[in-house]
Task: structure prediction
Amino acid sequence: MRNIYEVLQGPLLTEKGTLLKEKDNKVLFKVSKNANKIEIKNAVESIFKVKVDRVTTMNCKGKKKRMGKYEGKRSDWKKAIVTLKEGEKLDFIEGV
Result:
């Protein structure tokens, strides 16, 4: 079992994520590429002290980028959509 802080790499603060949070009580996280749903659920529950209903994951491909004649590629990454149970709340920017 991996360290819970290696599984979760950080929150994804996007417009789509904000809409999902307000509408469906879902939170987006950037996670390790080899983390599974059970590890993600345990990490979120232990770090934030909330109850998780379900976890959905997706692998995102890195974009191809060019700088003049040189071409490169951003690294691939994994995104997790964590659905919180009814009545649970998670706010990242509460103190700002």
The first strand starts at residue 8 and ends at 11. DSSP finds three helices and six strands in the chain.
